[in-house]
Amino acid sequence: MSKTFHIQPPADEKGDEPLFRIIYVIDVNALDFLEAARLTHQIMTDPNSLPPVLAVMDHKGKVEKIDLSQRKKKGE
43 near 37, Cβ under 8 Å? Predict the structure, then answer.
């Protein structure tokens, strides 16, 4: 298996809003792949978890790093 991981941009869909691909990277200790996936989902959905840093990719492949802990929600 390759040591690199390549992520394709999302489709260039024609809709009311553009389509983005969100890349969420996290390292977890687990006994197997399924447990790792379940632990990650638990962390992602825990309201007490810290806001993550995400990579957001548009349909052209442009990527912007977003640190949600540094951003205020709209209206704040």
Answer: no
